[in-house]
Design goal:
This protein is of the alpha/beta class. The protein is about 35% helix and about 20% strand. The protein has 11 helices and 15 strands. The strands form 3 sheets. A 7-stranded mixed β-sheet has the order 4-10-9-8-7-5-6, sandwiched between helices. It has a 4-stranded mixed β-sheet with strand order 1-2-3-13. A 4-stranded antiparallel β-sheet has the order 11-12-15-14, with helices on one face. Bound molecules: pyridoxal-5'-phosphate.
Length: about 375
């Protein structure tokens, strides 16, 4: 059997990794400023993570959600404390798309309405509901184009108000910081205005923190920089540091819907242990603070580079928009300097490194970046 192709592949096969480093099968070592797409939050093979998961594997790896699982309770407690959403309930699933799918479903159950609002350029995942709320027709099958989603521009409160006033919408989905679009941050005033509109028209506010959450922005959730609260918050990626797990944080307003969701694998013993290890390391090693400090450091080091049109983002979710030459630069970073970076949009290099990246590693990147951009200018 062949593999069903997913993405174009780089000709590199990682076989080992530690911290912010990846080693391929030829023994070449790379710096990882991509984190496998914002997934590696506490660094590859962190000793606490390895110890906790291996220990759990010797006890019990999986049993279904038909029995009690104290690890889930513990995870809900810890996540509540660190995220400041301790009064919410947690539904555990396996991925970001699945978290969004369940969030939309809850909002629709709660309001009895079928339509949702999403922002232009949004990315919420590839399952049916999530992809319908993703502003990219190229990845939607006819089945996904239900007409139940309206896309509105980020920042335009009048457009949001006009749609919500129709009384047809269950929810609005907003990424804490738009990632796949190329790192676009909703402004605090906009989010405050959206919160007011949602309260006025009884529309559920869903923050998709799948990419921007888990400390990446320097706060636990990116929307918390704006001091607003969501009704539902979705998480995944950094939550398991590579172990597949997603979550939906659900406001007490939805109390009546307990029992309406289900899953086979979600919240299994190994996944919960991975997620507990991640929270422990984020807390014990002050990784939110490190993300904020290292984000500022990268941005200040790159300031003044003439190849850059704009640097956007918060903490360790950084978009470097280039004037030109994006593809060449990204390839040269990877193949000549052995540095993994992410991409987005047409001309944007995306940095999503592990939250414990250090100055020394950043200095290597900055030197390589400046040298390669000097070559082309
Ligand atoms: C903001 C956002 N939401 C949802 C998803 C989908 O997550 P997953 O690939 O785990 O389904 C992604 C993935 O990139 C994302 O960036």
């Amino acid at each position: 059997m062949k593999l069903f192709d997913v993405y174009p592949l780089w000709p590199i096969e990682p076989v080992k990794a530690y911290g912010c480093r990846i080693i391929d099968k030829e023994g070449k070592e790379y710096i990882d400023l991509y984190g496998g797409h914002a997934v590696i939050s506490i660094g590859h093979c962190h000793p606490t993570y390895v110890k906790m998961i291996s220990g759990q594997l010797h006890k019990i790896g999986f049993y279904s959600n038909a029995v009690q699982n104290a690890l889930q309770q513990q995870l809900a407690q810890e996540l509540g404390k660190l995220s400041d959403y301790g009064d919410y309930s947690l539904f555990l699933c396996n991925s970001g798309a699945e978290a969004n799918e369940n969030a939309i479903k809850l909002a629709s159950f709660h309001t009895g309405k079928a339509r949702v609002l999403a922002l232009r350029k949004a990315f919420h995942g590839r399952t049916s509901g999530a992809v319908a709320a993703t502003d990219n027709p190229a990845i939607q099958a006819p089945f996904n184009r239900t007409g139940n989603v309206t896309f509105i521009p980020m920042g335009d409160l009048a457009a949001a108000g006009a749609e919500m006033a129709k009384g047809e919408y269950a929810a609005i989905l907003i990424e804490g910081i738009q990632g796949v679009a190329g790192i676009f941050e909703p402004k605090a005033d906009y989010l405050k205005g959206i919160r007011e509109l949602c309260d006025k028209y009884e529309v559920v506010l869903i923050f998709d923190e799948v990419q921007s959450g888990y400390g990446r922005s320097g706060r636990f959730f990116a929307h918390q920089h704006s001091r607003v609260r969501g009704d539902i918050i979705t998480v995944a990626k950094g939550m398991g540091n590579g172990f597949p797990i997603g979550g939906v944080l659900i406001s007490p307003l939805f109390q009546a819907l307990h029992g309406m969701l289900g899953t086979t694998f979600g919240g299994n013993h190994l996944a919960c242990t991975a997620a507990l290890a991640v929270l422990k390391v984020i807390r014990e090693e002050s990784l939110m603070e490190n993300a904020a400090a290292m984000g500022d450091y990268i941005t200040s080091c790159l300031k003044g580079n003439r190849a850059i049109k704009e640097i956007r983002g918060k903490g360790l979710m950084i978009g470097i928009e280039l004037k030109e030459g994006y593809e060449t630069l990204r390839n040269r970073l990877l193949f000549e300097k052995q540095i993994f970076t992410g991409g987005a949009g047409k001309n944007i290099i995306r940095l999503l490194p592990p939250l414990n990246v250090d100055k020394q590693t950043i200095d290597i990147f900055v030197e390589a970046f400046n040298q390669l951009t000097d070559d082309t200018n």
